[in-house]
Protein: Zinc carboxypeptidase
Amino acid sequence: MIISRASLVLSLCLVTSAAWGSDNLMPPQSDPDLEYATAILDGDYHLNITAPKDVLGYPVGYHRMASPAQISTLFNRWDTESERMKLVQYATSHEGRPLYVAYISSPENLAKLDEFKQMAQQLAHPDELSGTEVDTLIEQMPATAWMAYSIHGNETSGADAAVAASYHLIADQSEATQQLLANMIVMIDPMMNPDGRARFSKTLEQFRGTAPNVDDQSLLHSGDWPFGRMNHYLFDLNRDFFYLTQPESRGRVALINDWYPQLMIDGHEMGAQDTFLMGPPREPINNHVPASVRTWSDQFAEEQAAAFDRHGWRYYTGEWFENLYTGYSNYAEYRGSIHILYEQSRMAEDGVRRPEGTVQTYAESVHHQYVSTFANLASLATHSKAIYRDFVELRRVATASRGEYANRSYVILPTDNTSRLNQLVEKLNAQDIQVFRAERELSVGETKSQSGRVQRRYTIPAGSLVIPNRQPEARLIAAIMEFDAHINDEVLRGERNALLQGESSLMYDTTAWNLTMMYGLESVVVSEHINSGLARYEIQPAERNEVSEGIAFVVDGADDLSLAYAARLMEQGVEVRASNISSTYGNDSFNPGSVMVTLADNPNLAVPQLVDVANELGLTLKRINTGFGQGDLPEWGGRHFPLLEQPQIALLSHMPMSPYVTGSTWFAIDSMLGIRHSQIHNQQLSYMDLRRYNVIIVPPSWGSGLSEGSLAELQRWVEQGGTLISLGGASRQFASADFTQTALLNDSLESVEPYDRKVYEELMAEHHQFDLSDTKSHTLSMDVVAPWVRDVSYPPVAQIVERDRWNARFMPRGSFITGRVDADHWLSFGAITEMPLLYSSATLLMPSGSAEAVIRAGHYRAPQGSLSEALTGAWQNVGWTAVPEDSEVSVRMSGLLWPEAAQRIVNTAYLVREQVGSGQVIMFANEANFRGAALGTQRLLLNAIVLGPGMGTEPRIQL
Structure:
């Protein structure tokens, strides 16, 4: 039975209209907030179902947020008390808290959940259905809504509104509610981030006073470091919907993808002095969001706005809210769902004094989310059948042989980094994306590389991964796999004008997120549908290693988990070596960075110990019976197998350190290495015994950064043999300190020639083919190639400074830059030749002297002739640096990068290693493990942590 929209709006959206009229908004009671909170739930409720206040001790929203434990208690009770609810735990947080979805519907519908889920999956694959079958399924299928709240733990009113809405749906005895549930399955995800909510709840307890506090600047409202927004590892879960790095995301996405819900709402909060933002978003909007979904989003927004108008509540749409990035909760749109965002002004618990002099209470915030919930459900009940028809059509278009996604395939080239490749396949499989393996070489037509090079004919190597875009999940595939997200010209003009006028960027988040670039895997896109010579890619369980005899045992260094192998063995007291070049022993060849354990170093070693750790990590352990290297390859007793030193790690933490970067670094150590480390308070360095650590990692800071005293302590520690690793903005501070030869671009402009000469020397060392006949000549050669013979004319200093000030306006907001890698350096083990580097800040490093530029921005090639010839030809000035006129320099890989920014970034260093005394400083220009998903640059960080104490510092002999 279809319910009229008018009756739903009156019955569901205005259930509290009598108590919320303008004359009754603040009734003359002794406690108006209590009256207000009590009015949220105003229905004829079943007495055998626990009311929220019976567990909370107060009405929903009355000066208190419901704790995670209270919410879990209520939903578990309701699951046993109500025939309208079925509760399912879909994940467990890092701290052991459950995450639930509550299926709320009529008892008859709940008994058929599995059947309805199967029907939803049939509609999502309409190519297998006739038109009559589609019509029958749509007629039988109830509306489906996924209603999710408080993914940011300190945005609390959403979860409280979920409590109120769930109780109303399961306990209200009105005809309107029963009719709604007879035709709809409401899936309520009440608390998407229980760990963050628990952290914020504890903060409220700590800073709560005896009197209400309506000052939104107080700690009661803001919380303190690391704040409640993020989960245990300080991840923003609303950026993780396709990276799937966190258990909360993996569990949630699995269920969403099972159901293809017609509607997904996401209840947030924003600044305390704001009002209420609802969809639809403004541009830029990802062009893979279906047009029909956008149309329905507009319709739902109008109807939600009408519900607010009836209450006289202020609101707006769009403005700062855009949907270009794919990893938000609107992820579901790429699969055909309608997505609605709520952004309610944050009121904490006591409410906030507004500029107009009124105080908005927490109960009002809860009520806004509550009314929005029922407004959207009313819209869905009215339009569900039409939405299903549009859903079927867009799913058909996705697999059409002449459609937008018909002739495109993504190819990931073979790699020895098996664990990283398998991680990617796991993420794709979790999103119903079909992945294939090329069983043989495949000849195809036009391809484009990550750095933009086009080839007319191309041979795909056997063993490559192939992901045809022509699949049911075509829109999602394109959104996360295409090298560039489309941004329309109008948005680009608006963005440029904003930057020219000194205004903030229109881009709310990163503009680049391609999965293969994040994972540091070489990939090409092919302009055709590949469907022959393929087999489904199956992740094979690692073969278990068996105990065997040998003189040494080796794990190949191509795999990221080889570092975990080395680190875990060292933690168990095993002496470990790592190669710094390729090697071959017997029939086995090994990549640089391979981990070797010798019986000579470990005379009392139990071989099963090595085997157990390798099996635990899924790595192949090779035994060798000779240390003799064939030809020019190294022997095992030479300088190419340095002894590693067990990393003793400290991660600087607490204000003003960025919790995001602190968290992603912490997560990398825990999830990839699995070894002990300490978070230490950055403001207490002067009181600590830093001799306990040989690796200290410094995240970027919000504000002034480390004190002069802390910098001095770290300098002394480094000089005595420590490995200091700085990330992003932290590198800015160390590059300005006295103990490094690396400077910032801003500080180098008055004398750029020495820095540019170092770039030239590196290029010559790598690419110049010297004419050896001059070396053998007995006469003086007049044609010497050296830095001073380059014909480079640098502009006056004032002009260089002015150019840089201009170019700095256009710095990227999350763009992939092509990096050129010193492949011989131990820090670059596991990196591909053209390394994708994510830039989102203006930390531009300029190494000089003995500082080693391991990776620089920009990759050179010569379209005609050789690069060696181009280096000895004419040069032209570009900003602070010069490039050969006969070369092409690839800079932008993906995302918005203005030409001015490219000129500023090119030839600056992304990764620098510098010897300081007996120790070293390793500086990253940006965060190395962005959102826990940048596995390519994360490998560089893990190299620094595990290999650094042994390969980069002076050896210490302990007597």
